[in-house]
Amino acid sequence: MIVTVITPTLDAMSYLPACVQSARSQKSDRVDVEHVVVDGGSSDGTVEFARSAGCTVLTGKDEGIFDAINKGSFNSNGALLGFLGADDILLPGALDAVVRAHERHGARWLVGRIRWIDVRGVGRGDQSPPPSWVTAPILASLGWNCVPHPSTYIDREFFEQLGGFDKKLKYAGDYDFVVRARQFDSFVGIPRTLSCFRRHGGNMNMRPDAAHLAEIEAIAERFGPSAPWQRLAYRYFLKLWLNGGSLPWFARKRIDAVRAR
User: Fold this and answer.
1) 34-43, 66-75, 171-180, 206-215: which range is least confident on average?
2) How confident is the model over 158-172, as pLDDT tens digits?
3) pLDDT class of 255 with cuts at 50, 70, 90
4) N or C end of the chain: which has fewer CB within 10 A?
5) Separation CA 225–CA 231 (nearest Å)
């Protein structure tokens, strides 16, 4: 099965080699990997490196990261689509596990665990996704995307049915996408850690400015319950489940937050 991994880039050479190598190493008898790099105008050798490493490279101006991901997705060949940041990596055997689960369950989308790492690649704990029975209104009430998109794979037809990511959103497009997907179908959970999310000062989803918060609020208004008390109850229920199911991740996250003050 061809699995496409889409990576949007802009001057990404600090981390891109590790990302590309992690995707290339996924090839097996069961998996053929297509790595599509969508570049928004790099000047640090990102494009040249990606081409030399065998990636399919798309260049040109875009309307943001989610527009870039759409371009890569709609101009690719994989039966399954995944999205990997240039500063993130896939763990060994991840795509083989995804394909096996897809073949076993016939799921339209699948989600595994994710490992948070620091700038040096040191692990900061593994985060489990929410349970697959959690509804779209519950997800929309949380206030952040707890479905880890670097560990999420989606059937191409389902992606096209959803219309891809909403390119009007500049910060919370992944959050909006998984909530919309959950409206149509539940995902199948894969009981292993598939990818690593590198947490550093430049992560777009770690910058809760006014525009970011407005997008999150719009998602809650559109997909969440109308009653404020119910939204609050859903939020704390899901927070407790996530933190309780990933205690080392939760503890290290709190320690890092205290150190950053």
Assistant:
1) 206-215
2) 999 999 999 999 999
3) confident
4) C
5) 6
Domains and their CATH numbers in the chain: 2-259 (3.90.550.10)
227's tokens: 């009653």
Q: Report DSSP state, residue 146.
A: -
Place of tokens 């991994």: 5
Distance from C-alpha of 140 to C-alpha of 221, rounded to nearest angstrom: 8
The answer, yes or no, to whether residue 157 has pLDDT greater than 90, is: yes
Task: Please give the full DSSP string across 18-85, using - where no structure is assigned.
Answer: HHHHHHHTT--SS-EEEEEEEES---SSHHHHHHHTT-EEEES--SSHHHHHHHHHHT---SEEEE--
Retrieve residue 30's tokens.
């069961």
Closest CA to 8 of 33, 43, 39: 39
pLDDT at 123: 84
